[in-house]
Design brief:
homodimer, 3 strands, DNA-binding
DNA sequence: CTTGACCATCGCAAAGATACGATATACGAT
DNA sequence: ATCGTATATCGTATCTTTGCGATGGTCAAG
C-alpha cells in the first residue's frame, strides 16, 4: 500500500510534521498572523485580507482547524475563528525541543 | 493561472512556509535528527535507519537540500550529507520570531 | 416569506508529493 | 577491462494539495 509509510515513524515526529505541514503555505501563516492581531476574526475579514477566493480561504481555515492550531465557532450567521493558543504553544515547544536536539 | 497564488504573499512568509514544508514529513525530520547525531553521514547509513527504499530516501535528501537545510558533497563514490547549520539557525530564528509576533 | 449576507461544502481540474523499481553513473577493487 | 558497491535520477502509479465556481444552508432584515 502506497503512502502508509508515514505511520512507520515515531508518534512525536508525525505530530511535528503535521504541524509543520499546517504552516507550509503562506496563506495559513498569514491567517495566523491576522488572527493574532485581531484576537478573533470572522471569515469575511480574512477573505478581504487575502488574495484568495472565499472557498479557498475556508479550506485553509479547515486545514488549520484540523491541525488544531485554530478554533472556530459558528455564532449566528457568522463564523468566528481564533487561535488555539494551547496547541500553538505545544507546537513551538516541540519545535524548539527539536532545535535543541539538533544542537546537542 | 492556478497555483501562482503563493507568490502573492510576503517574501518572508513564503520562506517560512518553504522551510516548514521541508519539515512536513516525518522522514525528513528523522533525517535531520540522524545527521545531527552523526554529525555527517552517508546516504547508505540513512537508508538503513529509515523504513524507506533507497530511491525514496534520496528524494527526501534532495528536498532538504533544495530547502537549504542540509548540504551534500560527493566524496569519491559516496555522498556525505551534513546539516546546513546556518540556514537551520535562520529557520529557528524566523519561526521563533513568528511565535513572538503571535503572542504580542 | 422572501431577500440578501455569510459561510461551508461539493465537484472539478491542475499541479505537487510520495513511494517504488529499474536504470544510469561513478568509482574502488580485482 | 570487469565487477560490485553506492547514489542519483527516470518513469510510473497513486494520493494529496491548491484553487475556483457553483450550490446549499442558516440567519437577520425587510
Amino acid at each position: 500500500m502506497v503512502l502508509a509509510k508515514k505511520e512507520d515513524f515515531p508518534e512525536k515526529d508525525i505530530k511535528l510534521a503535521d504541524w509543520c505541514k499546517a504552516l507550509s503555505h503562506p496563506a495559513r501563516i498569514t491567517i495566523l498572523r491576522l488572527l493574532a492581531s485581531k484576537n478573533e476574526c470572522m471569515c469575511g475579514e480574512l477573505v478581504l485580507d487575502l488574495p484568495l477566493a472565499q472557498s479557498t480561504v475556508s479550506q485553509h481555515l479547515k486545514a488549520l482547524k484540523a491541525a488544531g492550531l485554530i478554533q472556530g465557532e459558528i455564532e449566528g450567521m457568522k463564523s468566528k475563528y481564533c487561535m488555539n493558543k494551547k496547541n500553538i504553544d505545544k507546537f513551538f515547544k516541540l519545535i524548539n525541543q527539536f532545535n535543541y536536539h539538533l544542537n546537542d
